[in-house]
Amino acid sequence: MALSLPAHPDPLAARLHASGLLPELAHGLGGPFHYLLPERFDANLAAFRTALTDAGVDGLVYYAKKANKAAVFMDRCAAADAGVDVASLGELRDALGHGVRGEDLVVTGPAKNDRLLCVAARQGALIAVDALDELDRLLALNGERPVRVLLRRHPSAQPGSRFGLDEAQLHEALARCVAAGPTVRMEGFSFHLSGYEIRPRADLAGELVELCLKARALGLQADRISIGGGFPVDYVPADDWHAFLAEQGPEHYHAHKAFTAADFYPYHSPVAGADALRSILAARPGGTGATLAERLRQSGVTLLLEPGRALLDRAGSSVFRVQGVKDRAGYGIVTVDGTSLSLSEQWFASEYLPEPLLLTARADAAAGPYPACVGGASCLDSDLLTWRKIAFPARPRPGDLLVYPNTAGYQMDSNESPFHELPLPPKVVIDHPADGHRPRWRLDR
User: Fold this and answer.
1) Which residues pair with 147 in a beta bridge?
2) 20 to 30 A from 351, CA-CA: which of 122, 181, 277, 287?
3) pLDDT tens digits, 234-255
4) Quick one: DSSP state of residue 25?
């Protein structure tokens, strides 16, 4: 028996699917592709900014570029005067090339190479320093302007994290910043936390506010903190999600593959996106005293955010064309014209669970449920886009389309590869005219 786990309904995507444009694109492009809905990005960015305004908190939103390589999202950041979080020289150059100002960039990542540090410093970017030797290399640049830095705090709640400076290293980093004088502008602190829980982020943010006050006593600027990303996205309805976790087992997957609940991203979250930011701001660090928002206001500290996935919620989907179907005992195997590398959850030995939508022009499209997994067009036995047996409304046929919903956040290009010399799926930007006419499209790059 197949388990159903549909994504939340999306009227904008449904309008596109009903327009007849996707089959034309599949024919014209000759393979799988991703479509992008940039107005969703705009709306998500606005929602985060509104949450900051409503809380009376000064804040800046930086789009974490690693979540999607599309150029259109850089264009949107530049147009909205939003920041961008980059972690490589290529990402930095791309952001600058699309009009994002150097001072609107924050450079993260571990052990950044000298060329990245040099270019970032010359462009006036804010650099999150992850180690003492990295700080020393920055201080040795002797550029024309002060180097802007945040000191990344190692999270005591996650002692196994490889990121950040521990207490002794942080003390030494502050001393080196003081000694460096006007060559460095130590603007505050940051952290990287794995997971999506509200309380640990609020607690550590409260600790960073206190660190800012201590750094100011040393004569440093220290007027901002970055709490990174980790804002969850709500992909599927609560009832479907809880039923899926309670019932799923090896019998629901091809080859009896086994997953546990811990293997999956939390595809349902009761508090997600900008609402998660509201909850963080309303939390009381340490469980007592003033809220985080109150502490930020009282101390004059600006809050920096680096969401990626949460800014891309419903901002794009992935489309594959069915190449063939074979029957097995009790279910089928659908093969599409792409590979599982275009759904990067496989990178984590997991499964992208929001199920694909079958688009077909056939009259028998509701002929009855046909359970099937979805395989890629490679010679690898493990190349499955979906191990789970999906209850399709009819037996898919060659030429039908499968649309994997809401894949813009990390899924569609984090792990892409031209394996078998298959072309990388292009990205198609969809524009919906205000007059309600048929959607228009253009290639992203």
Assistant:
1) 184
2) 277
3) 999 999 999 999 999 999 999 9
4) H
